[in-house]
Design goal:
The complex is a heterodimer of chains A (116) and B (421). Chain A has 116 residues and is an alpha/beta fold. Chain A contains five helices and seven strands. The longest helix of chain A is centred in the middle third of the chain and has 16 residues. In chain B, α1 packs across α7 and α4 runs parallel beside α5. The radius of gyration of chain B is 40 Å and the shape is rod-shaped. Classes of the chains: A alpha/beta (116), B alpha+beta (421).
């Protein structure tokens, strides 16, 4: 899976460049996160601003990633959560379990969608 | 030139070993002296040699011996080089036969004719032994390459056949598994304690992770559920099959049967017994119990889409308070919601594949359209309403295929409470 990746202060910021996180893509998504150092215990910020759809496998992968980061002594925050992705996180109450954060950069990216 | 003459002679023994795999070289010439000269040279380079005085004799040898390389004179009585060459090319042989034509120097018509007839190379007479050697070796390289390719092709097609067989076996298994899985789903439409029950099931692949069911708890109450195991295919189907036995009162002991009447307890039990590790599949579920006489019930929603209630007048409301999927967190807590279905009201439990269905242009069907469709189809009998829903979904998708499993379990309260009827 293609992800953009850059340092943002103490955090490593990752953004999956795909509109869908579903059963077909979760394996790719997981290996991309591992390659980016999910197990190294640092602070990761996952920008979901490009995502328009997450299915239950995708949710499973987000939970997997959060648990994995925690186990390694790190943290995984989610930013850019909106639209259908936000709805499904709320429905499943995962918005209370995963670290959903507000983020200026992701929200700036989200403005066109918000206006539409 | 000189060096290429001597080195092959020094390397005779090494080449002789290779030569066995190359097969004999056939030398065709009507002149006994030229034939002997060429055959002698080639034999001196460690090759096995056959000779023929004309094309007809050559053809007889080719028919019985594994000759891969032919050096042939072009102008011969009876069957000449051109005819021999055409016959070689016209006949399907198990391997490629490389032809070097011997032509007269300056006979450019011959040259064109021999290439057109299918010769691979030519040598103009008179020639230097070194030239013959170089062209012979070049020809043998092509022959060896062709042989390796042929071997690889045979291996590939054998592997391909094996794959096709394995695939056919898997398909047979999947078809059988699909039939078994359909048997896990309840037969509908049916009447349960005076309530209509109908369902819709459209798996995205042969087998799916969607499962739904309903069963009486006693003469007055019944339970219903709809669940969706994450992912598709075999692993999801196996997980849903395991869950179906968990959700069958006949299989449960007294403790299990008691739990089936308590949605909150049941969901907690499922979450406690479902391994919350990375490999296990998690699932979403709505599980509820209902008093058939009063229409009152309780349900738990765990990560699953909200159940939708359609009122006889077309009004809509949704049930459930949301909640974590099962099998993700050991300490997940859920909430039970009490509800009441009035006479004639319908309850729909849908998989997310329904609202998430995409049109060819990428637009998602969405909860709004799903709810409107259910409201608009409310005048139809319950199972016709689900058929109508399927039609609308198909029209939206523009095809029969589904990205995700689609299933719906629907209940309809009797028009009047039975005690008043």
């Amino acid at each position: 899976m293609r992800m953009s990746c850059h340092r943002d202060g103490a955090s490593l910021r990752l953004k999956p460049l795909t509109p869908r996180l579903d059963a077909e893509r979760v394996d790719d998504f997981k290996s991309a996160l591992l390659a980016a150092g999910l197990d190294r215990g640092g602070s990761l910020v996952l920008d979901l601003g490009d995502l328009r759809f997450v299915d239950s496998s995708g949710l499973g992968a987000l939970v997997w990633a959060a648990k994995r980061a925690r186990r390694a002594g790190g943290r995984l925050g989610l930013v850019g959560v909106r639209g259908a992705v936000e709805q499904v996180l709320r429905l499943t109450r995962l918005d209370r379990v995963l670290l959903v954060e507000r983020d200026a950069e992701a929200e700036a990216g989200g403005l066109p969608a918000a206006r539409a | 030139m000189q060096s290429s003459m001597t080195s092959p002679l020094e390397g005779v023994s090494k080449r002789a070993a290779e030569a066995g795999g190359d097969g004999p070289v056939l030398v065709v010439d009507d002149s006994p002296s030229t034939r002997r000269l060429i055959a002698g040279l080639i034999a001196g380079w460690g090759r096995d040699v056959r000779t023929a005085a004309d094309g007809a004799e050559a053809w007889r040898i080719l028919e019985r011996e594994p000759v891969r390389l032919v050096v042939t004179d072009w102008v011969m009585p009876e069957v000449d080089g051109e005819e021999l060459c055409r016959r070689i090319r016209a006949t399907r042989h198990q391997c490629y036969r490389y032809v070097i034509a011997l032509t007269q120097r300056d006979a450019s018509d011959d040259l064109v004719a021999c290439l057109e007839a299918g010769a691979d190379d030519y040598i103009a007479k008179p020639f230097e032994p070194a030239e013959l050697h170089a062209r012979l070796e070049a020809g043998l390289r092509v022959v060896r390459l062709e042989r390796r390719l042929a071997t690889r092709n045979r291996q590939l097609s054998a592997a391909n056949e094996e794959l096709a067989r394995a695939r056919a076996a898997i398909e047979r298994d999947l078809i059988a598994a699909t039939k078994v899985q359909r048997r896990l789903l309840p037969r509908t439409p049916r009447r349960l304690h005076g309530w209509e029950v109908a369902s819709l099931f459209v798996p995205s692949t042969w087998i799916s992770g969607d499962l739904f069911g309903f069963f009486p708890l006693d003469e007055r109450h019944f339970a219903f559920y709809h669940l969706d195991v994450a992912g598709h295919g075999v692993a999801a189907a196996l997980a849903s099959a395991a869950l179906s036995s968990e959700l069958t009162p006949d299989h449960a002991g007294p403790e299990g049967r008691r739990r089936l009447a308590e949605p909150l307890e049941l969901v907690a039990h499922l979450n406690a017994t479902q391994p919350c590790d990375d490999e296990a599949s998690h699932f979403t579920i709505v599980y509820g119990v209902l008093d058939s006489l009063t229409g009152t019930g309780r349900l738990v929603q765990a990560g699953h889409p909200h159940p939708i209630v359609v009122e006889p007048g077309g009004g809509l409301r949704q049930l459930g308070r949301g909640g974590l999927p099962i099998g993700l967190f050991d300490d997940a807590e859920h909430e039970e919601e009490a509800f009441r279905l009035a006479p004639g009201e319908r309850l729909f439990l849908c998989s997310d594949g329904l609202a998430d269905a995409d049109a060819p242009d990428g637009r998602t069907w969405g909860e709004e359209r799903l709810r409107s469709a259910l409201s608009e189809l409310r005048e139809l009998p319950l199972s016709d309403c689900l058929d109508g829903l399927r039609e609308r979904l198909r029209a939206w998708r523009g095809c029969d295929d589904q990205d995700d499993d689609v299933s719906v379990l629907a209940l309809e309260a009797p028009p009047n409470p039975p005690e008043e009827a």
